[in-house]
Amino acid sequence: MKSLLLYGAHDARVVDVPEPEAGPGQVKIRVECAGICxxxxxxxxxxxxxxxxxxxxxxxxxxxxxxxxxxxxxxAVGDGVDDLPTGTLVAIRPNVFDGTCAACSRGEVxxxxxxxxxxxxxxxxxxxxxxxxxxxxxxxxxxxxEVAAMIESTAVAWHAVKQxxxxxxxxxxVIGAGPVGLGLVACLKARGVSTIHVSEPSAARGRLAADMGxxxxxxxxxxxxxxxxxxxxxxxxxxxxxVGQPTYDTALRALRPGGTSVVVAMxxxxxxxxxxxxxxxxKKLIGSMxxxxxxxxxxxxxxxxxxxxxxxxxxxxxxLDDVVSQGLEHLLGTxxxxxxxxxxxxxxxx
Length: 350
Ligand SMILES: [Zn+2]
What we know:
The chain has 350 residues and is an alpha/beta fold.
């Protein structure tokens, strides 16, 4: 079968690999749709995981298969799986955890000491994938494979909103209108947050945020902090951009006293933090990492009931053979400021 493997920085290839078979307790799915994530782009750009690294739970080693946001249909099940009929549309929760460490014992499986992700070390940009039964979540047929493939990135935003005190009537600032930022807009709306500001320099992404009901500011021309403080500051802010010092400063200073800022982006650089600002204002800074099994199920319920809709985030559709040129390289180049979520389908499967 075809699968995208990462051989090194800027060296990913769609190659022929053995088709995986479902072992006991596992399901085998034929992938129908997989989203390209910013972390796929980081892995492609920097290739930080050595090929000889063997993940303790996934037992996979390099060259690593990319793609962790994916959905497909069950084509086979292993021994002990009797509740997932062939043909069922499923979204895969790709994070794996040992279930036994201190974090897992607290229910914080997203913080597992041995945690990992299918498609970071082991992927969705393949024709078939095998995963544990507990990672396969049936998705109503009427939602379709594209929406099913959007569950994972939406769950990242869902978890971040749950980590925050945002509630009905709150005001929020989202910095960055990429897949997670626009996912935050959708999840904040689903939670009844009344005023959602978005800071985003890209006009194309800003238009999408505005179409979703956000008040959009261009930080290259607008003084976002002054503008929001004129109204007393926002209750919560989210940095979904990971830009660095400028966005950290905006996220903190746009808050009202006592407000909460949530970091939900990967920061490659350190930022300077003035603790005095926290003491005198009682502002809070919290992090949000991935999602739990509950978050994943809640997102599927919210999308099914119609309160949450990730479809406006889809800006491109390509086939697996073109995933490097029209996917990874495009998103690191001209697509950086225009695309949000590009979905990959395997195309014709033998
Ligand atoms: Zn654990």
